[in-house]
């Protein structure tokens, strides 16, 4: 005998009535194929969050399974790009006809990219943490992209102090007026010659940009390339000695405080005309046990706040 299952989402009274901003699911494990400009579609495993608003005050709840299954379609039958995300958001809304008029999907995943060494021509994998958010609000789409770029920052203050120690050591070692070039050259190649080195630290730029809602494709690699080119000292994948030496030169020629890195990235994002942006620079200090942090936003009305 077939029995009808109770469906309390439709029949039970809400314990208490009222609108809710977002209702849905978090920490959904979701493999999918991600599409972005200038790379082949790539398999990633994301942690997803899926939400709709609940604007019907007396409804018991939303239909979680409908969101979950729409995400499953995205994962198994489609590739993730702006169009398919828009379709999934549309499915969220149409399956919650009288309950919701806003929806959002968030994905956090690591994007593995082949990155070239500085000089030797070797190539290796580097993973970039990506956070992608797609929203629809009464028919209006919006996309946000967050990327973390890891780089090395050498302290300009420490570099100046180290240079002074090197000058002092030179002055002490070569008191006479005329010094022999070969002797100085050899001395410079010793730890007595370069008596001090500045400290550098592994640093991370967290960058969030608001994308144009009309975009036909994501361009994650374009943004990563631009950020790394601006910072000039991104951490490397494959490294031979010639690459390491070039990295040392790049560090020496691009000394930066967290303020310098923040202003560089701010300038880049201004040039690239993003509708809005937020950035946080984190220098994980080797001089201190605490971090140096700088934050900046575009500063538009109703936009991101610092
Ligand atoms: N709304 C809601 N559902 C929850 C929650 N926690 C678990 N669920 C379960 O999510 C499941 C899916 O709900 P629905 O999408 O309404 O499932 P369904 O009634 O089989 O699907 P439809 O026939 O499409 O409505 C139900 O079994 C709920 O019990 C919660 O906090 N809120």
Automatic annotation (TrEMBL):
Gene3D superfamilies per record: Urate Oxidase (3.10.270.10)
Record site feature (May be catalytically important), residues: 155
Function: Converts GTP to 7,8-dihydroneopterin triphosphate.
Species of origin: Pseudoalteromonas gelatinilytica
Entry keywords, A to Z: Hydrolase
Protein name: GTP cyclohydrolase FolE2
Pathway in which the depicted protein is active: Cofactor biosynthesis; 7,8-dihydroneopterin triphosphate biosynthesis; 7,8-dihydroneopterin triphosphate from GTP: step 1/1
Family per similarity comment: Belongs to the GTP cyclohydrolase IV family.
Domain of life: Bacteria
EC number(s) on file: 3.5.4.16
InterPro entries in the cross-refs: GTP_cyclohydrolase_FolE2, GTP_cyclohydrolase_FolE2/MptA
Name of the top EC class for this enzyme: hydrolase
Lineage: Bacteria, Pseudomonadati, Pseudomonadota, Gammaproteobacteria, Alteromonadales
Catalysed reactions, as listed in the record: GTP + H2O = 7,8-dihydroneopterin 3'-triphosphate + formate + H(+)
